[in-house]
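Quick one, T. Sequence first:
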Amino acid sequence: MKFRPLFHPRCSVFWATTYTFDIETFESHLLPRLGGAPLNAVVLADQNHLEAEWAQLGRAGRQYLLRGIEWPHRFHPKTYFFGRPDSGTLVVGSGNCGLNGFLNGNEVATRFDSKDPAGMSAIRHWAAWMTRLVHETDDSLCEEQWRNVQRSLGWLAGPLGQSTFVHNLDESLSDQLQRMVGDRLDELHLLAPFCDPGAKAIASLASTFHPKRLCLYAPDRMAVDGPKLVRALRASGARIEVRRPDPQAYVHAKLIGAMRGKQGWLLSGSANLSQSALLSTGQHANCEAGVLVEAAPATIRELFNKPELAWKALSVDALATLTHDLPPEPTAPQLRLLRASIDERGVVTAFFRSIAHVGEARLRLWAPETEKDVAAAVVVPAGGSDILIASAETVSEELENVCAVCIIVDNQQSGYVPLEEPASLRALLEAVGKERQDPDGLTLDDLSSPLGQLVVRIRERVDFSAVLEDIEVTKTIAAGAAGMDDANGDEGIVIEDLNELLLRRRRHLVHPRSTLPTIDEILAEIQALRDEAPAPAHRLHVAVGKHAEGGAENDGQTKHKWSPTKRLQVRFSNALDRMCRAAGDLRIFDRDPEQAGRNIETLIDVLHACHFREEVNGFVSLPRMPVLTEHLLLSLGGSEGSPGLAQKLTEADLADLLKSTALESRQRFAELITHVIAPGGHEGKERLYRLQPAMQTLMDPGIIAPADDDVRERLTHLLHLNDDEHWTATVWRKHRVSVRIHPTASGKWLLISGSTSVLDDPASVQLVSEWLWYVGGDNWDRAQVRLASFDGHAHEGIGATRIAITVGDTAWLQIPGRVDSQSSEKVTRRVIEALVAQHQPWAALFVAGSADALQQPAAAR
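Structure tokens:
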């Protein structure tokens, strides 16, 4: 289904629940479509994930309320309610609030309309559930916003009746499914991208429903312990069928289909195939929401096998290669700032939670290009969160653009949260008939602006029709007809006109490549735009305290004016994102290798220009640049388990691709990467680690081509940047060997746990080789390594087998209860590489014979 038309100016209420939240997309593209006052917009998101997004704040706390929900496990429901005085629409699905959740990821969603009796019942059940969630927040501002929804939408009140909307606050989703379905099924169909590590939820479903046939749909990057999943499936006693997307594709939808005879039932929504999602309840579970309906078996099978997503059979044993390798979940910090607000007097009040006792604290107020610490008093209430209050006298009038705050306690800093203005939010609830401050929709005249010409001419130069329908790409660029809808709300006319304009220009494009517009020519066209309409600031003005301009007369409205520049900026960025993701699709190369190279060349040049050229700087926001670059890198260079274009091509094909991609563009690619893929902070390092394999893959054939030694040196530094935590995670991912690095006075010990023996398992030799590369690069001389087995209880390897190695010297072996022994030969780099090549353990060095014998086949020794 299409979400964008639901964000409509006639909506006075928008309430959403989501696990992750794409702030930039929501604030730049979706929120403005809702129109002006009266507007009650609230987003409830998982607190742990939300804290990573605060850096992109702009309008939260002023034009909408953004609230993090602390849940013992995960706050995971995906629901979206659009309310009008006389009607409403509810969407319950699997997609998070953002570009990926609404446009990509192969999601599932169910729409309910209040004009339909079943839809009205579902919406009222959702409202009752939301009342309980709001009460759980213990947040007066959130409760005030929800009471306003109940008052302004009187039709929400009424009998609940039977509903297909389900949640797990009182009863697990599995129990609700069983209560409706019973047991002894003919067929059970399962689809989700994530499972609990031991596949216990799948095993429980199979045990509960005893299906004759169990069909598991395994999307790309399905997260589960493969061997345990295979055992669970085989233990079910059902006839097992496994399917995977062909070609491989990421599927974020969550579906459970149950069938018996001519009856069928379908559970969809936010719940993955995990214990915390399906089998548990209330505070002992994730918070989940979904839809449970009866449907004909043929309809259910058709939903699992949509024509746009082809599936092919896979053997059960092939599932054994799956792993549960997921990034670590964000954890609750010791000091957490929950929310902060400023009143009409200029008094700032912040609610926070701290594990330790707090005696003194201060607030840090953040505004673009400046920040200021102010003194604050701590108030400890009888229950709930601690409160920090800063008086109006300490809040400087110099910080008129304050939009975020954090707190500092004993030199420990919390994350930032938006500085909310309850008065502005109340004004949005109450004001009627004020002049709208959100962007009008695009018109055909917008494409005559310099940036509009950039969009059109980029579309002339690239061709993604092999993988993206023309009209879809065009909609991404030119979407947003809010304010131009006719009386019937038909926005298709504007989109079709824009689409026809672009398609008509392409049909007349018969020039050879040499006459296509160059990036320099395109950029020259937008120089005038900077002179006539500078790009608006990323953050909106908000006055603090008594120095607020206009006082109450502003009624919560800002003086921010939308321009064609800003509207096109958003469409431009979103279009670039989709094209970067599609650049590595093999179908484009198969159709026209030269066009594939031209696409890549153009995207590189555009991203490079948006970052380095003064006349274009700002058309893509700074936080967006590394994301776009990452998507292009992964599309071309691939990631673990998902090959990119360069890995799919033969040497001859790669040579053709290089011929079609100008050397100057490939050099720009190298320069761009060294500037935007920065390892700063946890998020920056994690992005770099994800991209290192793709960068190496693209450097080898020259798709990334450093122009000089300085760029090459910086790229090499990025490629080899590592730390102990990442190294051990990589070892686990590659070898399934758990390693702890333990620093001691004599150096670092590698503590190897699990079934791996430091003496008898060749894997420990491979680990030492990789460790030496990690700590010394190409220079191993005199490098020292200490190995010890580790069973989860031993400390520093005490009481376990230990090996001490110094490259270029003899190694020492210590086995509890035995005399220490020395290797028969010096352990040189040649010896270590020979052991690795012949898959031999360290034990081979502690038996009679010389290290030269390692050059002989194992059978000869």
